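note to self — DONT lose this again. spent like an hour looking for the file last time. sequence + predicted structure for the chain T wanted, 753 res
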Amino acid sequence: MEWLARSAKPEKGQAAQSYLRHYSGVRAYGERFVAPLAPLLPPAVFLALVRGVFPAVEHHDLGKLEDPNQDVLGGKKKAGHLPISHWDAGTVHLLGQDRPLAAVLVSAHHTGLPNFPEEANRGAAAFRAKSANMQAPLALLLARHAEALGGTMDVPPPETGDVRDLSVFFRMALSVLVDADHTDSSAPNRPLADIPLDRHPPLLAEQRLAALDAYVSRFKGESERHALRRAIYEGCKTSRSDANIVACDSPVGSGKTTAVMAHLLAIAKERGLRRIFVVLPFTNIIRQSAATYRKALVLPGENPDDIVAEVHHLADFRKSPDETDESAASAEERTRDQAVRWTAPIIVTTAVAFFETLASATPSALRRLHELAGAAVFVDEAHAALPAKLLPVAWRWMQTLADEWNVHWVLASGSLVRFWEMPEIRDAAHPGNPLPVRNVPMLASRETRDKADGYEKARVRFETLEAPLTLAQLQNHVETAPGPRLVIVNTVQNAAVAAKFFAESRRFETVFHLSTALTPEDRADTLEKIKERLKTDPDGNWVLVGTSCIEAGMDLDFATGFREMSSLSSLLQASGRINREGQRWHTVMYLFSFADEPSLNCHPGLVDSIRVLKGLIAEKHPLSAELCTEALRRELRLNPGSESTLAQIAKAEAVRNFPKVEELFKVIASDTRTVIVDSDLVARFESFQPVDWRDVQRHSVQLWGSKLDQLHVPELAGHPGCFRWHLEYSPFLGCMEGILKVAEFARSGGGVV
């Protein structure tokens, strides 16, 4: 008898997949994923990975051999899902074999990593399926298993306990199992001989470093600014230490994008690292950074998109955790192409997508995580990457990944917060098990950094507009200041309202608007127009209005800036878009607050940051990068409740309450959803045509779940968790075009939508 792992799909021309073929495919992919890690990981970690993953690979589908499941897989009975949880039998067997790591992986490979304290309270039922448990005797299923595979497979001896951080280990090991399982399931009829040895281009660090050197050498100049950039580039490239976590605090506009990349390529060459991640706080600067790296790092004959991948946000469209394999298979296969993979040699992504993957308990999100082992990570604009409450557990992950998974980190920012020196952060990272204070060396020399700081302090000055401003008053200040002007506000709504007000007044030749209300495609187009205007009209009567997405990593050079009161770090970053090249005299960044107006709103998450900044100004402190760590310390003391949140997340991680960590670890503290704007893309989705995940990213926005409910935004048919935009959208205001019209209608007496 041929035992089955997957049912036939005649509409796709797919025959049923045998149990043997699926096991062989998952095993082959698992070996492809694990083997490259042998020279990269500490031997104890690699051994634990092998001893956890491969017994799980062999037994992950053992329960599919139950008679009721075979009846469904073979087509004898029709059902929307397998009647018996197919992972339960493998979990029972591995627990009985004293392989708890492998048992947890099998238990979690569809339902996700569990709450370990809750499982401990279940006693003998720990890690077992909560319903539709195994029915056949285990001995019978193991006999069928041996028959299907042609005998007992070669599996490694039982596990050892030589891994320091089991929380990270479980995520990494589950990543390998899930990726191998899903990759084989996506091509169930592929001959085993055709399984690729490698599925991504190599990093080729030495060649790319030479290409980067050549690229940087094209930018020559005799100014003090250019001399500092050259010194920082060479300092970063040649900096060496045994540390796996280093930092770069060079000021804004000093060329960190290329300087840190030179360091990472040099380290990757020496240590044999596999890929490089560039983690950015805002989606809008991904396109700019990726474009720079494609120009500088792609070798002749290579496809730039294959070498430098842009990941703007997660696009997993996950199935519900209570769905079984067969019931969700068709939905998963339709959306699997949209699952963002970390397989390119250089990946430019957001802090949301990157760190929330590290925090995940969900198989579809964790699938990519194993690609991080043996990589280098550049956390650019690190001051804005994570809120304070997430720093302790993120710092724990960084240290574990550095020490046990050979990940080299660079934390960089022109307003760097040395959070690793703060007891409030450091002690919470390992509750009950404090680690020694970790030395984090700086890449650039002290001499170079001092020169850069001196230049920075002379480049721009700050002035505070004391009285709160109406839109009309703000416009008057902006109009009388030297142009072009930059206006940065705290919310997407305020940016759209101000941009619309300025445009309708016709007091400026042009008004540009830039925020996450625009799709990445439209943000990129707008940014190109702004850069061109800065070249052709560097003193003109025009203005850019936007949100904090403008203030980090943008190569822009305005004459005057206006920044709504926010955090000190944001202010310093925004000032990097004013007089960036140091060619103007008496440049000013104005700080202001809005007066109460019905169309404007406040950002609740910035209340404490604004209070701290106002306090520093009142105390007449020079506003500089040296104050950023003190500003964060004051903010934590202002809000003692945040410390309890720090402890809550750290404790959940320490006891391996994986669902709680996933729930609490939200880089953006809101329930955001993917909303597709492009009508052609929507039509392809709803007719179940193939869709490239890159198209999803380029033509969608992220909106709060509450806003979707309020506006009655419809869900995509057949794609739960993904939505289509049904209101007006424009390249100027993006989705705020429709939202503002709805709000105006409601204020005029039209009712609440």
